[in-house]
Amino acid sequence: MSDEYGSDFISITDEDGKEYELEVLAELEYEGSKYLALVPAEDDGEEDLEVSILKAVDENGEEILVTVDDEDELEAVYSALMDLMYEDEEEEDSET
């Protein structure tokens, strides 16, 4: 899987060669690893967007994104990401 980092959007290619455009909602360093919260870039009007959490790992000198298979790790990272995202929203609200 390869990835191209842009401002808030990335393009990833899975192991079958299928390419996906994703929007980065948040990026988090947690226990020495980097995680990204992502949603599909296409806005089809759905209110219940499926958020994917992927972990950035180094493979042969290249950073790739992988799924988090450990349920405890995934829950901890999800909780930390939600705290981060709501903290950012609260800061924006207090500035206005």
In short, what is this structure?
The chain is an alpha+beta fold.
Characterization of the model:
With 96 residues, the chain is α+β, with helices and mostly antiparallel strands. The protein contains 1 helix and 6 strands, in the order ββββββα. The protein has one helix at residues 71-95; strands spanning 2-5, 9-13, 19-30, 33-40, 52-59, 62-67. Strands 1-2-3-4-5-6 form a 6-stranded antiparallel beta sheet. Strand 2 (9-13) and strand 3 form a beta hairpin. The chain is globular and about 45 Å long. The N and C termini lie far apart (41 Å). The model is unreliable at 1-6 (pLDDT under 50).
The helix fraction, in percent, is 25-40%
Give, in order, the helices and strands.
EEEEEEH
Number of strands: 6
**Helical stretch tally:** 1
What is the global morphology?
Answer: globular
What value does the average pLDDT take?
84
**What structural class do you assign from the helix and strand content?**
alpha+beta
| Unreliably modeled segments | 1-6
Q: What does the oligomeric state look like here? A: single chain
Give the termini separation: 41 Å
Cα-based radius of gyration, to the nearest Å = 14 Å
Give a quick account of the main beta sheet: strands, pairing sense, barrel closure.
6 strands, antiparallel
Q: Quote the beta fraction.
A: 35-45%
Spatial order of the strands forming the largest sheet: 1-2-3-4-5-6
